[in-house]
Amino acid sequence: MPAFDPLTYRYASRRNVVYAKNAVACTSVPLGAQIGLDVMKSGGSAVDAAVAMAAAMPLLEPTGNGLGSDCFALVWIERDKRLYGLNASGVAPMALSAEKVRAMGYTEMPKAGWLPTMVPGAPAGWAELNRRFGTKPLAELFAPAISYAEEGYPVPVNVARQWERDSRRIAKAMAENAAPHEYWWKSFMKPDGTPYRAGELFRFPDYAATLRSLAATDCESYYRGALMERIVAFSRATGGYFCEDDFRNYHPEWVEPITQDYRGYTVCEIPPNGHGITVLMALGILNGMTMPEKRESAEHYHKVMEAIKLAFADTRTYVADPRYMKTKVSELLDPAYLAARRALITDRALEPRAGDPHCGGTIYLCTADREGNMVSFIQSNYTTFGAGVAVPGTGISLQNRGANFSLDPASDNCLAGGKRSYHTIIPGFLLRDGAAVGPFGVMGAFMQPQGQTEVLVNTLDYHMNPQEALDAPRIQWIGGRRLELECEAGEAIADDRHAMLSAERCTLIQQRLDDWCANMGYKDSAANLLTLSRSVGISKRDLTQFFDQCQHSTFRVWLSGIRFQVAKDMMREYPDYSNDAISAECGFSARTQLYRIFKAKEGCTPTTWRDGLSKRQ
Question: Dihedral through CA 399, CA 400, CA 401, CA 404, nearest 10?
Answer without folding.
Answer: -170
